[in-house]
């Protein structure tokens, strides 16, 4: 899978944290029922890799990225457990050099023009903008589009139903990510119906702007 394929299917990407891999199948189904095709599971709990494997077993069609990948070791672990793509909050030169040799693609995280140019130097033009709201929000991404016209962004971090339209209205924003669709509380509480409802709302919000 290429990052272009991931971004073609992505609308608003739920950024999720799973503490118990046992919920992975029900959670994946809740997203599919809500019309989402792409999710990001963060590598922030001891259960993350098991949860990734469980999602891919229960719902192979759900395009699942492993987020919070910081280095080559994390990358390998994610790929070994079935990740369709990789997401990082930032970039390091070793991570970019490694990613450039891999068939499982990365969405590298950047927050400045210099970081974006470093990613471009390694061949990456689809980037996560993180942490979006505090790093400058939609006006900042719009400004980056002046000199860095070849780049496409997926903002995450502080994106919400209240400001998602500001981001998605920009031509250089192709999708967005956020934790509000499936919060830790909703996942721990097994609120699958609520997660499906939030997923449907997110898809509708995206389609309202992007068609
Ligand atoms: C994160 O890394 O936590 C994600 O970007 C989600 O951020 P959010 O909780 O502000 O949506």
TrEMBL record:
CDD domains: KDPG_aldolase
Pfam families: Aldolase
NCBIfam families: eda (TIGR01182), PRK05718.1 (NF004325)
Gene encoding the protein: kdgA
Protein's pathway: Carbohydrate acid metabolism
Enzyme class at the top of the EC tree: lyase
Protein species of origin: Aquisalinus luteolus
Domain of life: Bacteria
This protein's name: Bifunctional 4-hydroxy-2-oxoglutarate aldolase/2-dehydro-3-deoxy-phosphogluconate aldolase
Family from the record: Belongs to the KHG/KDPG aldolase family.
InterPro entries: Aldlse_KDPG_KHG, Aldolase_TIM, KDPG/KHG_AS_2
Alphabetized UniProt keyword annotations: Carbohydrate metabolism, Lyase
Subunit architecture: Homotrimer.
EC number: 4.1.2.14, 4.1.3.16
SUPFAM superfamilies: Aldolase
